[in-house]
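Box 3.1 A note on notation
Throughout this textbook, protein chains are presented in two layers. The first layer is the amino acid sequence; the second is a token string describing backbone geometry. Keep the layers aligned when reading.
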Amino acid sequence: MPKLTPSRQQYLDIKAQHPDAIVLFRLGDFYETFDGDAEIASRELDLTLTGRGTNPENRVPMAGVPYHAAEAYIARLVEKGYHVVIAEQMSTESINGLMPREVTRVITPGTIIEPGMLEQRENSYLLALNPEPDRAGRTWARVGLAYADITTGEFAVTQLEGTPETEATIAVLEELARLSPREVILPRGWVERGVTLPKEIHLTAVPDYSFELSSARQTLFDQFGVGSLEGFGLAGDKGLAIGAAGAIIQYLRDTQRGALAQLTELRAYSTAAFMVLDANTRRNLELTETIRGGKTRGSLLGVLDRTATPMGGRLLRAWINQPLLDARALNTRLDCVESLYDVGIARAEVIESLKPIADLERLANRAISGVTGPRELLSLALGLESIPAVRAAIDGYETLAALRDRLDPCRDVSEEIRRAIDENTPAILGNAGIIRPSFSAELDQIEAATREAKDYVASLEAVERERTGIKSLKVSFNKVFGYYIEVSSANADRGVPADYVRKQTLVNAERYITPTLKAYEDQILSAEERIIELETKLFRDLCANIAACGRRLTSTARALAEVDVYAALAEVAAREDYCRPTLTDDDILIIREGRHPVVEKLLHGERYVPNDTHFDADQRIHIITGPNMAGKSTAIRQVALITLMAQIGSFVPARSATIGIVDRIFTRIGAQDEIHAGQSTFMVEMTETAALLQCSSPRSLLILDEIGRGTSTYDGLAIARAVVEYIHNHGRLNSKTLFATHYHELTELEKILPRVRNYNVLVQEDGEHIAFLHKLAPGGADRSYGVHVAQLAGMPRSLVNRAKEILHDLEQNGSDFEIKRRVRRGGSQPAPQAQLPGLEEPPHPIVAALKGIKVDELSPMEAMMKLYELQRLARDA
């Protein structure tokens, strides 16, 4: 085996410390990858795979990227789930022939801080799970969950427990759906057992000891400088939560130590304080992105987000993802929105005052962590200088007084930045000209001496031409040879002054240096290095001073975000004619002339047809029938969106709305499969329906669209009816339910179940033509108009005509295709068995029903259902 070079050994040592990451090894102006890392980089980044060494057997694969463009390449690797290690050169000079290098960053999906690699209006969460198995060891009984966004300083923790109806795993999946973390860390032991999380989540295994209670507790003590965690809400049996929070801190120590400075607070929370939304509901209601495009436009967030700042956009997204259950807190939010809604001029002033403010939250945190740039500090100062205008715009509104008091302009910070940073500063450190003149006496002295030396060099050419009589003499500079006096060969042959020392010979010229010029050259070059070194130190000191004001800056940024959200919600409400909802603890939901907030925005000037909704103690289930394209799905979704909007503190698209606080919203909408998980469309439908039935309560709102359509007609109808009966009769449920269906047979349930009401979407017929009125009316529909919809969709005319024939045949003769087929082939249809009149009188329907009941086999719920049926038969009789 050939002997390894020092740099090769240096790389292998670093790689051995980070075997699961791609190491970017700085070599001059490039970051190089080697061996297997090079093959991965070449494949994932479309790089040319080269190599070092002439012997094919010992050739080392290489692939590199320019250091100045590395961020874009790193972003692509991290997006694909890789961890990236930066091995940086720590000096411009080698030591014993080896350039010193150290690992300066370990970049993982959850520890990104570079602005170009982040979504401005989305949080970037690193999340830790600390599970405790049940007695059988097959699932999770309890789970500690912690998450942090190191770009904003947010750090929160909770402990999730299962219930008799659900596992803790379900609560974990719901939180993962809410937070959409960039990375999840989990004890290695659980990862090796094959834990399954949603496929889009990047999972990282870390040593089990990171979650161990005693070490995690001490880690948190050290981070926050405390001797107890009770002040963070972690008293009592919260060991799993403590372990998860400690593991977050330990992971950041290993990967992003500088980020620890901005984690100054830890917030314990309970999911019981919020409306929990599962992933299906978020997707079906298109809260923050659309089902198809994954874009904000076309989602509820796309309609509501008129925020002026990125931090306001992030807060609004968080509110939509986590509606409140506290009517008092919601009315406080609504009061703030109403204050700005009522006075358009004040609202416009608030919005205008927010526009100059950049992402104060992330800018402050980058300064605290010491990774900010000079121009970012100027943006921070500009944002702080705009705060007095925001305060003035909301001054006089009692509802906003608490927010106004939290808006600290931090004048000491902005003034120090303005005194220190030159307005024409370079974007990054390592360049002269960052610090403003007169900020540092020492720096001013060095720059004055440098200017004197440069003035001497600038005047030297004229002086030397006069002294030597050589009119073509030039004084120049390059990075390799420094300063020099250049004389043409012809003039050099005629003689030059004795103090000229030959430095370089060219084809047609000679280059010289003089002792005086050399002295000034040393002074200039050493001064430039000293200036950069001193400016870097002064900049770091400035960042340290800003970090000392971190809590004030963070508090101000979060208050600004709230003002921004209130102004945005008020602006949308005023523009779109929304009303303030009335929130109550009564179990009712009454909406007058409600509209779908997204659909009406997409109508491009067409009038949206509003609809009413009424739920109270006597009306719990609405069965909604009507044709496709008539608007059933839109009508039921809008009720869910209006309810959710009210519970984030927003005005709602309706003439009026009285909303009893809803604890959960569930949706089962649309047909989709999970082929990768071996589940058919119908299995997915049944699984999701089972989950919502397990977790619902009387305070829940259920949105069910076409339950049972994924199987045969009779199976589907049976399941759909059983679901309605179960929701109606189960003591734990009796949930407010909107049930859209094509099974017209379900309209019979209104006669049987006292809290069921039928509604249908009105259709106007004109001969063979129909028009959908998109209006809900009491009563059930008796037709689906499916053939008409096929015609509207552009199906071939011959196909539509044939479908009409088949439909007529089915309506007249039923669906016994085998009998019809025999008749068409010339066979005879079996004659019905005649019965002589008067010989056998059929029993009374109630008697027949009673005879058929197997009393010993009935559950209490089934017994109740039978009573309802007998009561209906008695009425009919």
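Confidence is low (pLDDT under 50) at residues 673-678, 817-825, 830-839. The radius of gyration is 37 Å.
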